[in-house]
Amino acid sequence: MSIPAEFMTALPWLVLILVFLGMACLQWRVINALDQALSRLSLPTAPPPPPVIVQGPPPVTPSPPPAPPAPKSTGPFDAAPPWFQKALHEIGFHETGNNQGIDRYIALGHCGALGDPWCAIFANAMLESSGIAGTRSASSQSFRSNPNFVQLQGPALGAIVVFWRGTQDSGLGHVGFYRGENANSVWTLGGNENDMVQIEALAKSSSTFGLIGYWWPKSVPLPTTGAVMMPTGSPTSVTVAPSASAAPARQGVQTDIVATYFGGQQSAYGGAIDDSALGVALPFHFQGDRPRVRVTGKRSGLSVDCDIVDVGPWNTNDPYWQTGARPQAETGTDTRGRHTNLAGIDLTLAASQAIQIDGKGLVDWEFVQSPKVT
Asked: DSSP for 350-364?
């Protein structure tokens, strides 16, 4: 049998096509085998990146509430400079005679000697013991020219107040610390006032004595100047120092005052004392409307509001609440020389029973409203 010529012509091409297809098939099988082998190797892969944490602002820890401010004492001389505060607690000191017994003030003030008039010695002692340079001179007039001091245009509580004595050019005089004034007098806290330390009302002007002016330590910020007016009836001499242990706990409160019972007598304000009415007596004669007084028993803690129905006990012109002093009767002798029971307030029978005081006891008291100043 013969093979057609056309077939023989196409045979080479057919063989080439078969070879090509075989090679392609082999190549695919090889690639597929390699791919499967690689997948079985378990090559380590990089760990996925950590998640991104978006942080907000840090939590706010609430601040504790601010501590309340420390309570401030509210005594009558809280605004006074330190040298005045120190001088207050020297009230009552008395020389031993002829300007003797003042050794402590001489040492503190770095000036003077026994036998010297000691008002300037005392003023320097209070200044120096407060860290303020004084004049270191026993002359009352030394504050007028000493470079450590400047003259004020007017008064201020605690200012150094200088007076002349004899004549205005004598070089003699007096010096102390300003407490207050009225039209005619300056209340001065000083030494060598009737041979002692006291607050005394001194004349602004007379034929032999008068006011010169006011000075202030240059190293201390200047005060606001202005007259401190003393109420009508203020005592012209304060000779008992305020008690540190009895400092008022709040404004206007007089603490640890001896109270006694009174009754069965005529009132200085007119009429008889009513034992059944709530009333007190204070050692001062109030003019016009009298303020009411709240009295609290120290042992019972009970309080009662009372009218002022009489003047007393003991003294008739000792408004100790105006000066920060203790009742003068606490000295044991009143201003007439009588032996006292130390009482600074009297209670009617009804008032003493209301706060459970039997005859005599300690009280705190305060004005329900401020007394009027006339």
From this structure: HHHHHTT--SEEEEE
